[in-house]
Automatic annotation (TrEMBL):
Peptidase M20 dimerisation domain segment(s): 237-305
UniProt keyword annotations, A-Z: Hydrolase
Protein name from the UniProt record: Indole-3-acetyl-aspartic acid hydrolase
GO molecular function, one term: hydrolase activity
Taxonomic source organism: Paratrimastix pyriformis
Length: 443
């Protein structure tokens, strides 16, 4: 294989990558509702050929599907997906929110290389500004309350481009390739359910990448990402007793005051001495009227830690504080886990493979060895599981010029970054699937 041959092949995919990305952007689907997206992925993989495609409940641990919408919401999104062109049989197979897809291609003896691509949009209304390119060119999200404002539409397009590229060069591969199309990354809800189901068990090398973040110039690749914060997302529901605030306040049990006490004391939790720790209450909803003792309150909060252990400390303290606040005001409390991510690190030896792949990609003009994420990403569940089993993992960033910051209603990517992402990841996978081509963890 020559550099020119692979680059030329990926170049032929550029227009197709753009079409797929824009189609997904127009039909944005939030976490656990990616019925149309999953259907499209399955259909495209079948068209490519050579991939053993698995989807539905078998690739998820039901006990770890955090923040799952209720059945009526999921049904509504299934119906919308079908109305927007999804295959009804495929959508039916995903009933319950099982919207992920795993594709495997066996190429003889050798290591197993997995590549992960997240699929979900954000709970966000896209800008309607006529100057916003998706509006001007007719591919803005038509689904209220859902927008691809983090680039996951591009990630899916890249994943399908990698599938097409590796299938075309299959004769040069020695080992097994696994592509993981993961739902519900936003809110760190989806990866653990797939990891606990064993989808990365037996994987020797795991590769993942994100468009943008610290890589905000098209043609830049950051080969190794650090600074992942472990995190836990939690809803706390306080239930008290309503009462007339003037005539009989003594008969009520005030859920709002319990929640308020919880908020203040959550932020008083001591920070951990062995690394960075965070806590934030992002939502407090309570009460029904000014003359009614509030009988219900909802807190939405998160903890974070530089390591999984530090986040575990913050979460345990938060749960203790919340239960104490409920006891102090004599109300009931229910704590609902809504998502989580582990701490993680990229393996430098595997990052070196990504570095070489980027160096061989003609459209890459800048390479940085490492960069910090400064946030959380649930790909860490896959990374941690692979690494604990003796394998390696690397999370890279593929540069793209941005119209606005991530999670902004005016977000848009430079679509010239899509073939770059395909080529870098395909080159890295192919290098690992050459006889003797993969690095080994130091003994």
């Amino acid at each position: 294989m020559s550099t020119k041959t692979l680059s030329d092949f990926v170049g032929t995919l550029a227009s197709q990558l753009r079409v797929v990305r824009r189609d997904l952007h127009k039909h944005a689907e939030a976490g656990w509702t990616e019925f149309r997206t999953g259907s499209l992925v399955i259909q495209e993989l079948r068209k490519i050929g050579g991939w053993d495609v698995v989807y539905g409940p078998s690739i998820f641990s039901r006990d770890h599907m955090a923040g799952l919408p209720d059945a009526s919401v999921l049904k509504t999104h299934q119906e919308r997906a079908i109305a927007q062109g999804a295959d009804p049989a495929l959508v039916a197979a995903m009933t319950g929110g099982f919207t992920g897809v795993v594709a495997t291609m066996g190429c003889g003896q050798g290591p197993t290389v997995a590549l992960r691509f997240d699929m979900d949009a954000l709970d966000l209304n896209e800008s309607t500004d006529p100057a916003h390119r998706p509006v001007a060119e007719g591919f803005a999200s038509q689904n209220p309350g859902a927008m691809h404002a983090c680039g996951h539409d591009g990630h899916v397009a890249i994943g399908l481009g990698v599938a097409r590229t590796l299938a075309a060069f299959r004769e040069e591969l020695h080992g097994t390739v696994k592509l993981i199309f993961q739902p519900a990354e936003e809110g760190v809800r989806g990866a653990r359910a797939m990891a606990e189901a064993g989808v990365v068990d037996g994987v020797d090398y795991l590769l993942a990448a994100h468009l943008g973040f610290k890589a905000t110039r098209t043609g830049l690749v950051i080969c190794e990402t650090s600074g992942f914060l472990a995190t836990s997302k939690l809803d706390a529901v306080f239930t008290g007793v309503p009462a007339h605030a003037g005539a009989a306040p003594h008969t009520g049990k005030n859920a709002l005051l319990a929640a308020a006490a919880g908020v203040l004391n959550l932020h008083a939790i001591a920070r951990h001495g062995e690394g960075a720790s965070r806590i934030n209450v992002g939502v407090l909803q309570a009460g029904t009227g000014r003359n009614v003792v509030p009988d219900r309150a909802l807190l939405k909060l998160e903890t974070r830690g530089e390591t999984t252990a530090i986040d575990g400390f913050m979460l345990a303290e938060a749960q203790r504080v919340l239960r104490g606040a409920a006891a102090m005001w004599d109300v009931d409390i229910e704590l609902r886990p809504m998502g989580c991510a582990a701490g993680a690190r990229s393996d430098p030896a595997l990052a070196a493979v990504v570095h070489q792949a980027a160096a061989e990609t003609p459209a890459v003009h800048e390479i940085e060895a490492a960069g910090g994420l400064g946030g959380s990403e649930d790909c860490t569940w896959f990374m941690d599981r692979v690494q604990r089993a003796g394998g390696m993992a690397c999370y890279a960033m593929v540069g793209t010029a941005l119209a606005a910051a991530h999670h902004d209603s005016r977000f848009d990517i430079d679509e010239a970054s899509l073939p770059i992402g395909v080529e870098v990841l395909a080159r890295a996978a192919m290098a690992l699937l050459r006889p003797g081509g993969g690095p080994r963890r130091p003994q």
